[in-house]
Amino acid sequence: MTENIKKPSRSERFVQYVCDLCRSDSTASAALRRSDRPALEYQSWGILINFGVDLDKPWERAAFTTIGAAVAQEGAEKNGTVAIMRALAQVYEKNLPPAERRLRRLLACQSTQECCQVLHPLFKLLRSKSSISIDYARLLDELLRFHSNTEQVRIRWATDFYPKENKE
User: How far is residue 161's CA from residue 90's CA, in Å, rounded to a whole number?
Assistant: First the structure.
């Protein structure tokens, strides 16, 4: 009898790779932390290439760079469990309008690269206001799909943000 063991997705493997790398290599950790700045992004390219990221695809490079920087800046030891938009809603639970503005700004993005630019300050905000552990692997999957399936990703973000109310 063989057990069905779920093989980790590429995104899950990348997040764990970054967590492990940051614990073992302070130089790589520093390069990843700085890679959210466009002028310093190139410092993380060797790490991305070692993981098999195609740097010729700007949407893929931006997604991996953004998530790598966020994981390194947080100092995460493993992937989190809360979707990014759910985390935003939880932080602003009693005062949703500021969070809704951030959600609308993200939903208005036209490219993965633009989403990544909008996400950088959102990561900082969430780190400063809570200790919620973000599911970076899921967010990386969503960013990689944004390029080809924009509307589906937007719908998922909105669904994560607005909790379903039981109206029975």
Answer: 9
